[in-house]
Amino acid sequence: MLKAFYQSLFFTTRFYALMGGIAIFFVVTFFFPSLLIVAQLLTAALLLLVMVDIFFLYQAGKQPLQVQRDMASRFSNGDENNISLKLVNNYRFPVTVIVIEELPVQFQVRDFRKKVFLKSGEEKDMSYTLRPVERGEYQFGKTNAFVRSLLGLSQRHIAPVNETTIKVYPSFMQLRNYEFFSFNNRLQELGVHKKRVIGHSTEFDHIKEYSRGDDVRTLNWKATARRGTLMVNNYVEEKSQQVYCVIDKGRNMKMPFNGLSLLDYAINSSLVFSNIALQKGDKTGMVTLAAQQVEVLPASNKKTQMNLLLERLYAQETQWEESDYEKLSVSLRSMFSQRSLLILYTNFESMTGLQRQLPYLRRLAKYHLLLVVFFENTELKKVTKDDVHTVEGIYRQVIAQKFAYDKKQMVKELTRYGILSLLTPPEQLTLNVVNKYLELKARSLI
After folding, report:
1. Locate the DUF58 domain: which residues (predicted)?
2. Which domains, ranges and CATH numbers included, belong to the chain?
């Protein structure tokens, strides 16, 4: 009991400042002996006030201050996650509480400190947000509360046992945002373009008046003769098609942007895209490629597919080795008998890197509809637009322009062999992939 008392008792800066002032006053009494009695009285008064302060802090029992941390059971990677702290003052007098959280080491936050004033019996909620940039387990320590009375000479340390481990999953918050806007038919506010989808299957849907852009081959001449205006047949949009997100986990996906690696951007995008594809009636699956290892989650449109995707994406990590695209093309050729849409998330920084993998990409595109998604280096793009006034700056800008030009050449090179491509900034990846998918559906290429 006595050990716990000593471990929880701390003195404040105010106490040490007063002690230092009294010490200096004692030095002065060496030159003015008549002031010694005053110094002694001040010392006694300070010690008495400290004892009174300690008595009031510890007379309230075991739970003078209730501290409770509330947060979600899992965090969303790359998003702001809210954590709330609930404080309840059970003292009979107002107190000042200093809260110091033991945050996970991944955040590298060592100066978390919040100060709050509580009246007697008052309850207050404090909140803060954390943005994880890595998937995995995060260990939260204790919530340390230091309670001070109005005297402010000492403080009592209260630390409830609330250590917990939180798992950080791919960005399910982004997924919920898309689901919410999709449910309310407001995806245009997020930047998703509404595509005019006309199915080319043999299942008839309805007849409507001809409008510019309709396929003239679907003209219904009998309906046209009856109505006296051009009428066209519409058919049901193709559904239950296989769509796979192929994620490259090689070293080229380790490059960071705004704290997240390219792999994390690809994972967050594939999660949102898969949910939209399921809503469109297609079957979604996932393929991961690392060195010579190819893992496949078969495409399905079951309700449990999103949970399977989330759990599979949670554990993915980049590798230092370069991915084997030959292994990928051979594996997918043997596993997939049905023509599918393959969205390959990868990155090429030079034409040489693309040329090395181009034969295998062409082989994939021969049997499937292949969309190669790679990333625009936004930092280099900023350099190309900077005003430079030195020779070194000119050299840097020319090199940056060369890299940016190579990216555009890669798009042309892929197009030359009939391979679809998407060059996008990392922060706009999800939006651009969803728009591209809707475009392919509208053109009935899948």
Report:
1. 208-371
2. 1-169 (2.60.40.10), 172-193+239-442 (3.40.50.410), 199-235 (no CATH)
